[in-house]
Amino acid sequence: MQYQISGKQIDIGEALQVYVKDGLGTVVEKYAERPTDAHVIFSKAGSEFVCEAIVHLSTGLTAQASARAHDIHASFDQCAEKMEKQLRRYKRRLKDHHKVRANPVDVLQGASYILAAEDGPDESEPESMEPMIIAEMETRIPALSVGEAVMQMELAHAPVLVFRNEKSNGVNVVYRRDDGNIGWIDPGNLS
Question: Of 17, 93, 107, whose CA–CA distance to 59 is shortest?
Fold first, then answer.
């Protein structure tokens, strides 16, 4: 597994990098069969250290966790505990579904745009209905089953996930509803 360990405006020493590689390697190898790479980022927020970890699995799914503590090692330890819990749930769900993915997830590239926010409700009528694009980047659209999409959304702590449905080959969306349930949009399944 490849590691990328960095700090945002803080120095990450060799001892901390070895500590992170050993700790995260133990957690990930226990629950994930073939992790490909891990990104661990340390930053400072006030008097606390923040540790954010993202692990990419060979199945195409991504797990991420973050934690805060007054000690940089404690922030990593808490983050690793959260990562272990997520990966344990992920592995249990795979066993519950009796489905082990033989091939990695296919990923399509898509365009992602960030649109400028409107200034507020008092604003007069806009001159054009075309929104102003302030950023453009590529995004990954994985080919997953609906169950895997829900699992990926939960692992990534994302409110929404766009994916290509393996069954219908159409673009679908899963999202967290305000009532706590999961919504699924399948435009190709209209009667």
Answer: 107
